[in-house]
Structures are given as structure tokens and as C-alpha cells.
Write the C-alpha cells for this entry.
Amino acid sequence: MLLRLPDPAAALRRLLAWLLLAAAGLLALAPTAHAQKLQPVPPLASRVTDNTGTLSAEQKTALEQRLAAFEQATGSQVAVLLVQTTAPEDIAAYANRVANAWKIGRKTIGDGLLLLVAKRDRKVRIEVAKALEGAVPDLAAKEVIDEAITPAFRRNDYAGGLSAALDKLETRIRAEALPAPAAQPDAAQASIDGDERTRSPQGFQWFDLAVFLFLAVPVLSSLLRRVLGRPLGAVAGGVAVGLLAFVFTLSLVMAGIAALAALVFGLLARTGPLGGVLPGSFGGLGNRGGGGWSSHDSGGFSSGGGGFRSGGGGDFGGGGASGDW
Amino acid sequence: MRRLFLLLIATLALSGCGYNDFQRLDEQTKSAWSEVLNQYQRRADLIPNIVATVKGQANFEQDTLTKVVEARAKATSIQVTPETLNDPQAFERFQQAQGQLTGALSRLLAVSENYPTLQANQGFRDLRVQLEGTENRITVARNRYIQAVQEYNVKARSFPTNLTAKVFGYAPKPSFTVQNEAQISVPPTVDFGAEKK
């Protein structure tokens, strides 16, 4: 079908391809906007990230397994990170940056906690998401550091200190009345909507969309139908509207609705012969456009401690406490 | 055909003029600002407790203590309304008052190092932890405000959305500057770093 296209259609397809590329490029750029000479945020591959080589493989696995079990029991996500240094930032600033980049904590609840050790700086910090500030207030975090971490770390017992600290922290989080964990966390959904805080509220998108549908779609689809002919014009109109809607609202759902509406309009306006085959192929395109969003791992949830995926809901406002040893 | 094109362009212009973006960004800066105020208030609420604890310490430097009390009084006396955001001078006054309070507090904590009984006082240590947490929260809230304002100001200044901003009166908003950043955030970091020694 594509081979028999007249020239204008080929040009149009090229244009659409460029639009798609541009949209994908925008998406790819968005999260990495702030890169400076600061310490990089390590990728979140597992619950325990050790960049210092302090923990043995067994110790790391043991900590990961207990944290995985804890998440299965309560839903709260706790991560441990060991780095050499946080310079030039102080540990509080770095911890906050890492925690807000990882966004550990369930999507709708945001119950995450990060235990950060800067080994060469001899500093440690417990960074608490806003949702857990009630369970682990600053004073409690300080107490955990003073009573569990500092003494053990002074004896060079890092795994023991971390384990003792996690004991205390888990007890505190368990005591908080948080919603029970869902049977199967909807991770795909979470990663798609992950960046919602910087995005607009729903109402604005609906408004834009309405303007779009009422004015632009008839114009666009009649134009395209004139150039490309009936069925193809309707499809091209749908694709174009979908892409434009996506560029404006940065929302796949919106784009999909807009594209579908445009397609239906294009077909109905001159009662095209094509049936319900097209909308299906359409949704496929819309989905592919946003593939760049779901971040790192593809491995689902395994209790073994491997494939860990952030819930994406943690909002860290600077709560927690720091200490040294 | 021509009319159709014109209509299309008009439609795109309508969505592209950025009016809705200004609504969103304006609200975003306001809520970020509320969080900044919230955390400054939290600090102001902590100070009476700190002052009371320190007063219990025999022959504590009265001068340092008075300065904290005065700076707090000054900082809390400044009326902050949403309009503060649209008034660079009021914003500046607010920022200076809070900066003075930060300075006075960090001096207080530095001086308290000379009093071992105060350092051993559990109540005082707890208050220090809470103060440190509050300063961290202030930093985070300020950073978020700066980011929100940055996004807003870029919209308000760049073409063509600056035309929309002019028509509807969305002026660029003031933000925390680098100079004030240094003035406000450096002293406490030094003190808190030496906290446990």
C-alpha cells in the first residue's frame, strides 16, 4: 500500500518522521537537563548499590534480600548506597539529589528511604521521603545513626552497622499505618507517568485538546484528504493530529485520543470504506512514540534482590539526619 | 483553501501563545514559594525552644542570644503575601531578614561549642538535629522555588510568549540570587559539619 503513494504523501511521511524524531529527542533530553561537575547519580540497578567495594557479595545479597522481603511485606522501598565521597556537595545535598532522581517509594504513596554512606568522607545520611517523615522523623534518624551505625562503622563493621540500622528503620516504618502493598505493582504505569510533577495538570491539556479537535481537525483532515485521497488522508490526518497533540501535551493518552478522534472524523466526514482495522494500527504507533520513557531495567519484580525498580513516587524534601563516625 | 490555512495558523497560535502555560507556571511558583515560607516558619518556631534551652546555661553570651531573638522578631514581622513574589524589593527585604536570622543562628551554634554542659544537654542536641533538618528543608524548598521561577521567567521573557506575558501582566519573578545563596547557606553548613565533635 505504501509503495503506491504519490509524491506529496512521501513528503508528508518524511515530515511526520521528523516530527516523531523531534518528539523522541525532546523526551530523551528532558531528564538529563541538569548535568554539572557534581558527583553523578549512580544508576539504580538494585536495592544495595556499593561503589566502594566495601561489602562482600554475600553481605550485599543478604541486605538486598532483606530489603526485598521488607518491600513485599510493607510496600515501602528502602535503598542503600555506598560511595567514596560526595564532594563538592555536602552529604545532605547529594543524598537529596540522588533520592529525588531515584524517586524510590511507591507511586501513589511515596514511601521511600535512602541510606547513604560516604566512606572516605566518613559521613552517613538517612534521607527520608516526605511520606515517611512521620515514621522516621529527623530525631529518630539521628538516633539510628548514633546508636546503630556510628559504633559499628568505627569497628569497620559496615555490613553489621547497615543491618542494625535497617532493623531499627524497618521497625519504625512497620509501626506506621501505611497502605498495604499491592499484589502486583504496576511498574510500567509508574514509569510512564513518572515525571508528572513537572507536567501540567489535566485541565489544561483537555482545553488545548478541545481547541484542537474543534478547529484544527476538520481543516487538517479535509486538506489531507484532498491531497492523499480518502482513506489515506484520514490515516495521515490522524497520525499528524496525534503527533501534534503529543508535542503539545506530552501525554500519550491525549495524543491517542486526539489521533483516534481525527481518524474517526476523517473517515466519517466522507464515509470511507475502511472499517475498524485502522484504529488498531494507530494505537500501536502512539505507544511506540513514548518508548523512551520507561527508564532502565526491563527485568520485572524478583524477590531475589536483583531487578529492582523504583516505584517512582518518592518526594524527598530534605528530611532525615546526617552523622559521621 | 487559503481560508483553511489561515484558520489552521490561528488555531496553532492560540495554543502556542502560552496563556495556559502561564497559569500553570504561576501556580507552580506560588506553591513552591509557599513551601519556602513553610520551612522558614518551621525554623522560626524552633527558635524559642533553642533560646530557652540556651538561657538555662549559666553565663551564656547574652549578646549572641539577643541577636538571634532580634533577628527572629524582624524576620517574622515581615508581612509576606503572594504579592511579595511580584515585588522585587519586598522579596529582597524578606530574603535579607531570613539571611540575618541564619547568620545569628549559626553564630549561636558556634558559640555554644564553648559550653560543654550545653553540648551534653540532650534537649539541646535534639534541637540542633531539628534545626539542621529544617535548614536542609529550607535549602530544598529554595532550590525548587528557583527552578520553578526559572521555568516561569524563561516563558515570560522569550518570544512569542513574552507578548502574552505583557498583555496579561505576567512579569518576571524575583528569585534567590547567587550572592544571597552564599550569604545564607554557607555559615550553617560549616557549623553542622562539625556537629558531633
Q: What stands out?
A: The radius of gyration of chain B is 23 Å. Residues 186-197 of chain B have pLDDT under 50 and may be disordered.
